[in-house]
Design brief:
Blueprint lengths: L3 E6 L3 H12 L4 E8 L3 E5 L2 E7 L10 E4 L8 H11 L3 E4 L11 E2 L2 H4 L9 E3 L3 H17 L1 E10 L6 H15 L33 H14 L5 E8 L6 E9 L5 H9 L4 E3 L11 H4 L5 E8 L6 E8 L3 H17 L3
Parallel strand pairs: 1-2, 1-5, 2-4, 5-6, 6-8, 7-8, 9-10, 12-13
Antiparallel strand pairs: 3-4, 9-11, 11-14, 13-14
Amino acid sequence: MKKYKVGIVGIGTVGTEMVKILRERRFPVNEIRILARSERDEEVAGQTFHVMEACDKAFDGLDFAFFAGTEGAKGASRLYGWGAVERGVTVIDNGDDFRMDPRVSLVIPEINAEALKDHNGFIANPNCSTIIALMVLGPLHKAGGIRRFVVSTYQSVSGTGRGAIDELERQVKEYVSGEPMRCEIYPHQIAFNIIPQIGSLRAEMPGYTSEEAKMLFETRKILGNNRIRVSATCVRVPVFYGHAEALNIEFEHPIDSEEARKILSATPGVRVVDDPSEGLYPLPLMCAGKDDVYVGRIRRDESVGNGLTLFVAGDNIRKGAALNAVQIAEALISGQY
């Protein structure tokens, strides 16, 4: 089997998870080259790596380069992404700089792997919340045609990165010890609180944030339908790992809850957990560290014709970021798209 030289740009929460997933899935690598702002030795996922300073030449000889920015992270792929492509590297970018660029394929392998056929050497991961939602919405859209959906997200602090994880843990300890809670990463206390703003306000969508706008524009690009309407409210919650989302969906054609369960039970990467009478439904704790997206609370939406309501949860660092990127590379290697 051919083996590949893989670069990972950035070694924070997502980059570290990429190293773990490459090993777990036995991705055929003969080199993992980690690039960051400064050269140093660093332990990553139990192994010591010599981290190279990112520069154009550092991409020489690589087959794949994963840009491992957390949600909203900018800069690295703008600096080095297209230059790496010119050096023969296939770039898979977790950041949001080029998701809506017409040159760039935006891919969830289980949903629109066919978009890889036309890639130009630069492929983007969708936003974590978009991935988690569309793992469920994609197969339902094929069955019934989505007209619109309303989504409220409950997003864990790991989406912001390591500093936010540390801040939540520190604030909990400060609360227990009776000390004032310091806010450094978020503008408000996150422990025992929720913050109904993720990202900056978007001028082209008055009142909506950048995170909420992504849910609209990325969904349309991935599903290939610019008529789908989306209203999103994105909320940061005091959870370490795992994003959850409540979805209210209106279809062109009726889909009842039992048909939806059958469709989703047969969808790779989706696990139906739906027995509220026994207290069984998706939870962030349930999906943390797991690859599947969990779905439950599937029921008719009584407020609209051809409507369904459901609840999903998925690990934003795994399927919402690192795993999806590795799956893209696996699809390219196998040619199954």
